[in-house]
Amino acid sequence: MPDRSEQIAFHRLSDIAPEEITAHMSDPRLRDHMPLLDGVRWDAATTEKFVAGKERCWAQDGLGHWAFVVGGRYVGWGGFEKEGDDWDFGLVLRPDAFGLGRRIADKALQFARKDPRIPYVTFLLPPSRRHLGALRRLGAQEIGMVPYQGAEFRKFRLLTGADA
Q1: 3-class SS at 75?
Q2: Closest Cα to residue 151, out of 33, 41, 37, 35?
């Protein structure tokens, strides 16, 4: 695991070696809390399609998911992606970097608070996620259950703009 004191950097996913992303997303431990991975065989072609899709978001919306790098090492991906009127925040870390989630989320949310396009962010969590204290401490409010790509998720909203 990277040292918790090391600097967190946000890069484009296209800057990361595809095999790093493939290895990350192929880890069976991710499936526990990622229902959209059910039945997906993550391989080089899946990674290529995934990264291309994330790059399209950047081209279309001027913002998208980043690769998170700590101490020069890729530790996961996430960030903001436009979902209808919402800017949804996602965070998918390698299992050996799970302890970095709060620091990475804090840095990303600092970005959101400074960006006038993002008056609030949403979070979609699978029902299997039981530990929600961090979201509540941030001030996120639960909206309820919502369907997304064939799965049910708990949706939360956090004000980040002038109304926060």
Answers
A1: strand
A2: 35
Average pLDDT, the chain: 87
pLDDT one-digit tens code per residue, 133-154:
778 888 899 999 988 877 788 8
Which residue's structure tokens are 């800057």?
15
String of b and e for 115-152 (b: at least 16 CB within 10 Å)? eeebebbbbbbeeeeeeeeebeebebeeeeeeeeeeee
What the block records as the tokens of 23 is 């290895």
- Tokens 């620091």 locate to 103
pLDDT under 70: residue ranges of the chain: 1-5, 30-40, 162-164
